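FAQ: What does the model actually see?

It sees only this:
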Amino acid sequence: MSLEMKRADDWLEDAAYNRAYDELDKVMAELQVRPGDERQALLPLLAHPNIQVRLDAAIATLTLSAAATEAMQGIASLGYCSQAFSAKRMLRAIEEGTWKPT
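And it is asked to produce this:
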């Protein structure tokens, strides 16, 4: 789903991006409610070569590992791609206290 989001973002296909996002959101919610919070299975994806996969894994695991924050900071430093912008915005919101990862 993250790979589809990246592809859709590259081609400015908002509807495809939103569909993939909605599906990813459902999967993340399911992983979170499973015994032991199965989002930890996503931690290896923090090193994935695709920036959208890394971003989504970091967002999903922010409460589970400091490595997720480091990955998010690394993405934020990459410049002006949409993923870097999203990472910067989320890090700022966490810092300001306007968003709390769950």
